[in-house]
Write a structure and sequence with these properties.
The protein is mostly helical. It is built from 11 helices and no strands. It has helices at 3-19, 26-33, 37-43, 47-74, 78-91, 93-97, 99-105, 109-133, 145-167, 174-185, 191-215.
């Protein structure tokens, strides 16, 4: 992607995250990008067109993240997987928070949202089956139980973003949601898995501290 369109999309994402999709005008994006409204409209004639391009960018970034997370999964680096997805969510929180507004503007947003949901559920389930094979997780107790577990992980990942918007990141931190996710896993661990869990639990503060250092 050329420099100016990329800058426009980056600034649009910042404003959408901060102000909400419906509260941002094209002029606001042009101002933040330090370009004229005419220059912006040359690249994106309407807000809908800009949103479509931004969602395409989100899809590409998501695909890249999944490839990285697969390598982490193979190395049993579960905390890095969690951190990567939370980082992705924070960076694209407008998509999760304003999805109903996005669907009304760009109906295909619904397909992307469903795709994101199914990818997280599928990735979580695959990770669980691998953990069973490694002796970290108990086998599936009945048909469909892993599916419901994975859907609940998706629910946690979505709910924490709303809590963060309402109460602020100081009260709803990345560390808290990482702990919530891994506490939810605890009843399913074998004895070997519980030992791994204790190691994960000890690493969470350091992972979060390193993440904050990168963003400051």
């Amino acid at each position: 992607m050329k420099k100016t369109p990329k800058k426009i999309l980056d600034k649009a994402r910042i404003l959408f995250n901060r102000e909400g999709v419906n509260n941002v005008r094209l002029q606001d994006i042009a101002n933040l990008a330090a370009i004229s409204s005419g220059n912006l409209s040359y690249h994106f004639k309407t807000k809908k067109e800009l949103i479509r391009a931004l969602l395409q960018q989100l899809q590409t970034t998501s695909k890249e993240m999944r490839a990285v997370n697969m390598s982490y999964l193979e190395r049993e680096d579960y905390l890095s997987i969690t951190r990567n997805f939370l980082r992705f969510q924070i960076g694209h929180r407008f998509f999760y928070r304003d999805i109903l507004d996005l669907i009304s503007l760009v109906p295909k947003s619904k397909e992307l949202y469903e795709s994101q949901m199914n990818q997280v559920i599928s990735f979580t389930k695959n990770g669980m089956y691998l953990a069973v094979g490694k002796g970290l997780w108990k086998p599936e107790s009945h048909d469909g139980s892993f599916q419901y577990f994975a859907k609940n992980i998706w629910a946690i990942l979505n709910a924490w973003l709303i809590e963060r918007e309402v109460f602020g990141e100081d009260q709803v931190s990345m560390e808290q949601v990482m702990r919530a996710i891994w506490e939810f896993h605890y009843p399913y661990f074998t004895e070997k898995g519980k030992n791994a869990y204790l190691n994960i639990k000890d690493q969470i503060p350091k992972i979060v501290q390193n993440e904050m250092a990168l963003t400051n």
